[in-house]
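Predict the 3D structure for this chain.
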Amino acid sequence: MASALAATPAWADIVWNWNYAGTGIQAGGTLTTADAADADGFHLITAITGMRNGDAITGLYPTGAAIPGNAPYALDNLIRSGPQGQITVHGFGFTTASGGYANPFFADFNNPAIYMEVFTTASSYSEDAITFTASAVPEPSSMLLWLAALGAAGWAGARRRRPGT
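Done. Predicted structure below.
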């Protein structure tokens, strides 16, 4: 029993809500990342769900590969919390049900730095400015602890207000 209690828990996944928009572009959904961040605070994206312009996202494009039509720009599939530079200059990539490939990224080489998306199909290529946001979804256990603390504070306050207690 003591050895079971001493065992280090496995890292949990983090789920993120993400979205981006630009002229004629609307995309969003959820990302799943590894819990452990690198030295710069980035988490590795391991799965993706969502839609891009009403087209279902069918999968995450492999880390280290470039989406078709955008070589040699290989993806790193990394994300972090914060207002700027949530994704890297390499960004993440995904496929769509209609056969498209998207690569949103942070163009820190622009002045000012902006988010952009490269989108390719068998017959087209586009590169457009976007606004990008993502936020980690709180873990249910964290939410339960927060709600329990809030409930305890409310209970303690109610006890103090009752006459004769």
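The chain has one domain: 12-137.
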